[in-house]
Amino acid sequence: MHRPRWLLLLLLLLTLVGVPAPGGAGEEAVGTGGPLADEEANGPGSPPADEVLEEGDILVLHRHNFDRALRAHPYLLVEFYAPGCGHCQALAPEFSKAAALLKNVSSELRLAKVDGVVEKELSEEFAVGSFPALKLFKLGNRSDPVDYSGRREAGAIVRWLLRKAGPSTTLLEDEATAARFIDSQDPVIVVVGFFSDLQSDNAAVVTTIAEDAVDFSFGLTDRPELFQKYGVSRDTVVLFKKFDEGRVDFPVDGDLDLEEFSQFLLSHSLELVMEYNSQTSSKIFEAKVLNHMLLFVNQTLDSHRALRPAFYEAAAPFRGQVLFVVLDVAGDNNHVLQYFGMNATAVPTLRFINVETTRKYMPQPGPVTASSVTAFCQDVLGGKIKHYLKSQEIPPDWDQRPVKVLVGKNFEQVAFDETKNVFVKFSRPQMPRGVPTARRWPRSGRSWRASTRRMRASSSPSSTPPPMSSKPFLSLASRLSSISLPGRGERWWSIKVPGTWRPFPNSWTAVASCQLRSPSPRKWGLTARTGAKMNCEEPLPSGPPERVLAFPSGGDPL
Questions:
Q1: Which residues are known to be catalytic?
Q2: What is the CATH code for 53-164?
Q3: Confidence of residue 47 (pLDDT cuts 50, 70, 90)
């Protein structure tokens, strides 16, 4: 077909400036993601979108290169982090050390990181709830990563990965191999399973535990000569350690119980008496032993160091039930002394604490001997000693005004008086929100003085057990609620007052006469004397500078 001369000139001009002609071969390349499109999208000279870059020895991953990294590395431990996270920043140097160590071990084991804030899709896909989160992806499997929950130290991370990638146990076939394995200095605990049948279920239990218990070395043997050499006559798991008694046997009668065996390893992997310091604190608190007996001493004094043998002697019968700890007040442990309300001049002394309830116990004054430590421990476990509260001294005029002053030493006596309904205001001194309340509280206290069954009190939060929150709210004590008061059968309900105290126009006098409309422990309607009505729900969202608790005499709602 004959084309006009002007059209031919136009096509020639378009060709010269590089614009594809309509319907030409170049039209398919526009927006198709070819090499030219990739370069234009990522910038001149930039790598392809799925290329895996490194920072140090750590792979940097995002949604475009994640699958490529999984295919390239059979065992990939990925850290999901947030740039502003303090825990992530603390982990960073240990993670880098672990990556450098692994680079010299195997190309199959690599560490990677993902910015979990930027890569929200990946964080959601792998159910990352907090940072940092470490997940192991094995053999390219994207759907079932394994969470890492061990210590955030380079050595622990490397041992855990090696254990996951390789055999978790070592087969001991002769005396020389067994001797080298048991006498090795790292780690300090070696576990050997002596089984007549290595294919048994009991041997499989040891193998399963070995995959995660990276602080131990695990071996297995079925050789009769090794049974004889180590004095084993039947199926037994033997724990060899380089402290305390040196060896502990766990005979296997019938089926090896996974939970019982795990508890055995836990209780005997800890030293009978632990020394508290910055290196051991995490191990102490990670132990599943909730009761701790503490001996506070000054290690610079010979008389204090001489107490340790008696403490060791008392500890043995309580292994697995109570963790015995020595704390040196001459070290960097002032924060512990403050927590117990002590000072360094009070040592040597003992304290007992349950780390789950945080209840603390102190013995009667006297010398620290094996018998006194044993008796103190038995009395606490037997419920014969009452826990104590950190407390200020009782003010001389604490009960001379309409509002009584409570501290830890008189809190239970007054707040739990079964002949009175008691409202207690918890406040922090010099808090701005506490000023209006401080003015109204004595006024409403005077209005209650005529009643013999009602009392109003004020208390400092540092001397009393209930938790604080950030907005004013009421708590009504009752046996029907879900939070137990220490040392009593009664309980309290927490009720949040929205905004300020305005729902009660007659200030605190109205609060005194509010009543529960519904017995439901989840939702109430409150009616004050003025007729104002409000609905309150639990649980409370967060923490106040002051609060009010109501302790009813008979346990019934006010």
A1: 85-88
A2: 3.40.30.10
A3: low
